[in-house]
Amino acid sequence: MTYVDTSDISARMFITVLLFLLIIAPLISLGVLRLFQSRKKSGFMLIGGGIAVYVFFQIITSLTQA
Fold it and tell me: I need a labelling partner for 58 at 20 to 30 A (CA). Which of 5, 16, 22, 51 fits?
């Protein structure tokens, strides 16, 4: 049995993956589900919300690095 060495993962990468798994991916997948259910307005709003969270996070991380 082998173990994966996770000591090289930066905090930024960990938070990005965590944010993606907990917020962005569910919003986008729910949006796609709503589109298949012919609820276009709520589907596009959910997908747009996922994209907005991603853009907001990118802005925040770029400001903290400067």
Answer: 5
